[in-house]
Amino acid sequence: MGMRTFLIMLFFFTCNFVFCQVSTTLDVRAPSDPGYGTVQYNNPSELGVKKQVTVDEDEVAGIPFWKNDWNKAYVFLTSGNVVKLNKAKLNLATNEIYFFDSSNTVKSADAAKIKEIVFIDKNDSVKPLAVFYKLDYDGNVFFQVLNKGDNQLLKVTKVSVIKRDYNAMLGKDEYAYESKPVYYLFHSAQLSKIDALSRENMVSLLDSSNGYNKWLDDNKNKLRNETDWVNFLNYYNSKQ
Fold this sequence. Notes:
Blueprint: H1 3-17, E1 41-42, E2 51-52, E3 60-61, E4 71-77, E5 82-91, E6 96-100, E7 106-108, E8 114-121, E9 124-137, E10 140-145, E11 152-167, E12 172-187, E13 190-194, H2 199-205, H3 212-218, H4 226-238
Parallel strand pairs: 1-5, 3-12
Antiparallel strand pairs: 2-7, 4-5, 4-8, 5-6, 6-7, 8-9, 9-10, 10-11, 11-12, 12-13
């Protein structure tokens, strides 16, 4: 095998290993943002409707959705098209998008056709409530992007069904949804899994030599939770 052939094969392998990003950031804007340009919205039929679904699960306590409320959403497709939905939910247990079709029936979209989902504030069409990217990495599907900039905190909420106590009155076992957040840092067009939100893990991933430790101390930021990390990354990105 020649060196040229080897390098070409290596390039394709690298791009397919996680995802080949042209940009170093994941866009968190809504298509209605004035800086986005003109967007043509396509018919929801392009979502590749899979099936009619039942939203409420009487046999399992709790909810598997990112939000239980129905929200407006823009769905970016792998084809490059964008679909606007007036009522949508993201099922974190199944990684499915639920939405109302033209006959007011709840359907699920084909996740294989989806690249990004932007949920919108009901009172502000330019303000995203949450942005989810579909990234094939670490066995996950939809990653929630928590901040703008070159260094971004991403979250995967893993939802599973657990068995609870036996209900003697009903004569059956009871089940409930259990959620667990897992965090990643997207930097230099790469993803790094974060075992725990801590100052030590942040320092190991980013250059903290340019006075950032002073900012953390001055702002009493311990980098111990999601809000701490997002606040610091917003500051860190503003200084890059």
